[in-house]
Design a protein that fits this description.
This protein has about 675 residues and is of the alpha/beta class. It is built from 17 helices and 33 strands. The chain has 6 domains: about 100 residues, 3-Layer(aba) Sandwich (Cobalt-precorrin-4 Transmethylase, domain 1); about 110 residues, Cobalt-precorrin-4 Transmethylase, domain 1; about 70 residues, OB fold (Dihydrolipoamide Acetyltransferase, E2P); about 60 residues, OB fold (Dihydrolipoamide Acetyltransferase, E2P) (Beta Barrel), CATH 2.40.50; about 70 residues, Nucleic acid-binding proteins (OB fold (Dihydrolipoamide Acetyltransferase, E2P), Beta Barrel); about 70 residues, OB fold (Dihydrolipoamide Acetyltransferase, E2P). The chain has a 5-stranded parallel β-sheet, with helices on both faces. Strand 22 and strand 23 form a beta hairpin. Helix 4 runs parallel beside helix 5, helix 6 runs parallel beside helix 7 and helix 8 packs parallel to helix 9.
Length: about 675
Amino acid sequence: MKITLAKTAGFCFGVNRAVDIVEKLAELGEKVCTLGPIIHNAQLVAELEKKGVRIINSPNEAASDEVLVIRSHGVTAAVEEDCEKFAKRVENATCPFVSKIHKIVNERSLMGDIILIAGDEKHKEVEGIRGHVKGESYVFGDEAELEKILKNHPEFCQKSISVVSQTTFHKEIWEKSEKILKKVCTNAIIFDTICNATSKRQTEASELSKISDVMFVVGGRHSSNTNKLFSICSENCNATYLIETADEVKREQLIGAESIGVVAGASTPAGIIKEVISVMTETIKTTDELNIGAEISDDMSFEEALELSLSSLNTDQKVHGVVLAVGPTEIQVDIGRKQTGYVKAEEFSYDTSVKLNEVVKVGDELDLIVMKTNDQEGTIMLSKRRYDNIANWDKIVEACENGTVLEGKVTEIIKGGMIVNALGFKVFIPASQATLTRGADLEPLKGTTVSFKVLEIGRRRRVIGSVRAILQEQRKEIEAKFWENIAVGDVFKGVVKSLTGYGAFVDLGGVDGMVHISELSWQRIKNPAEVVSVGDTLEVYVKDIDTEKKKISLGHKKPDENPWLIFTRDYADKEVVKATIVSMTAYGAFARIIPGVDGLIHISQIADRRIEKPQDELKIGQEVDVKIIGVDEEKKRVSLSIRALLEPAKEEVAEEAAPATEEAVEAPAEEAAE
């Protein structure tokens, strides 16, 4: 086991300076208040409060007999002026590197420059920087936000721009942002204001996380630079933990790791770092090497960090025991020694949900590891979980060598894949190996149990697995059985997997078949999407099978739903029906009698007179009465007529009205003669 502590761990120059200012004032007996927490570390702030240092949120809260200290993040110019009005005096503990940025933005903005700031808009340091700008300023947190600003302000290309960054800004994002600025705003003046210590800290964190099985980032959760270190380490090491104190170090985080890396934020006290290292070495008790890269203190020795006194000759010794008693939090075990053996609940299983009284009973025999012997109290602390862990690692190695299938629970969905907890170990399943379909959403898998194969074991016990390998094998078995039994005419209920311009592919249960566009609907359609969507369930039947090419042609249209059969069954020649105009051509109009059956009203059959075009009498969507004047069974064509309904009516009216018309004509003539 190797533990490596980064060289840059602990206080940076600016933080150390700010803390020294406050502590010296307190030692001199001054009443001290700080404008906000002096640094982002709750433990150190609590220690200062014990020394009488109080935190205020606004300058007007300072008493006239107090020394007000401006913290390392700095404040706006207006707040600096207000501080002088209320306190006995002001001690400006702003980091010199931050003060330099204040000077840059103040001078450049007075010259008329627009100021762009790379950083977290809500961070106190960035708020302070903007407070020294005499004009326009914009903040961006990454490349996307920068590009958005430049897109919304195309005039920037013609104006003077100065660019700075928060001292703890992400180095990689800053470099990418620089490239964008140099390409889009050639007139921009770029000031690299990332603190050199921050840059070194991030570089070392990146390098250390690439060669470590487990990474611990020690620092306040509200600390910007600590969170950036966590982000950097997480990109390279799946097992990365952000902790504030040694109390957060858990045994399960260390088991199975051959190399552990430790980095710390710029506001993390040396004492906390030492406690973390101490707890780690006490917890694992098998440390072969402790690499203290950082000089966190002159008096910290190798022996102090390792705390060899906590290890005994019995540590890690395998024993066999019999359960004497079972309680809710621990098990009492007889291992054949004068000391009484105990197994705490957290040391029984890597599954924290296990309840001891449900899985263990008096008389059960257990294989255990001796964790710690206390001869003075006559007790031995034992671990079944650690014993199982050793045995389970052998199972994982064997599974890798023999292709054995393992099971595990998906505990995390991370960038690039997911983490599966199997036999107490974290197994990384790349996204490409998590499902049958590349690019599938992995979130629904979280919390589920999956089967997988071990593809690779790295030299630092990094396990890479594949769920896809199992799914592919299962699919092959399903396919083989499917092809043995399938026959033309078989009916399936399948799910639409994808659509193309010529049809839809349907999953029949491990094997796909294709429904041609002509088979999707009795009506004429231009695209399958008009009648079906991905995910729909369709009832289909097998029309044709090509076993050599492994292709299946499917049908979906039901014969008894054939519109032509319905038409010929329900409608007769010379019958008058209602129809809806659906389209027009130069030679007539098509009217829909029933869905799937359209008839042609020839232009000569639209009116009782000659017309130039169908649109003169009809419009799309209009419902009309028509007479069926012809049915071509072979070509499935129907001829319709509106005129046939108009002409008989006209002739009948003419015959009945003829005598009356003569009388009507004569009557006025007689009246005129009189």
